[in-house]
Amino acid sequence: MYIHLGDDFVVSTHEIVAIFDYKTKASPIVEEFLTKQKDLILSTNNTPKSIVVTVQSIYFSPLASGTLKKRTQVQTGI
Predict the structure, then answer these.
(1) pTM across the whole model
(2) pLDDT tens profile 18-75
(3) What values do phi and psi take at 31, rounded to 5?
(4) Nearest to 51 by CA among 77, 2, 37
(5) What are the residue ranges spanned by the domains of the chain?
(6) Which of 78, 75, 6, 72 is nearest to 41 (CA)?
(7) What is the DSSP letter of 12?
(8) Measured between alpha carbons, how far is 14 from 7 in angstroms, rounded to an integer?
């Protein structure tokens, strides 16, 4: 199944590793993790509200982390 992350981003639910609230970016550990990543895909149209880590990339999504969580639960039947 696939999940729409906002803007023009769609990823497979099987590739999602984690979904974080964008406010956690202020954490030193998350900040260090993000600075070492090469495949960051930024949301260009809206202010990011969540960070979606997939197997291949990291997306800054304009949708709230709670909304994305609900979408993954509906898609996977949990």
Answers:
(1) 0.81
(2) 998 988 877 888 888 888 887 777 766 778 899 999 988 889 899 999 999 888 886 5
(3) -60, -45
(4) 37
(5) 2-76
(6) 6
(7) E
(8) 20
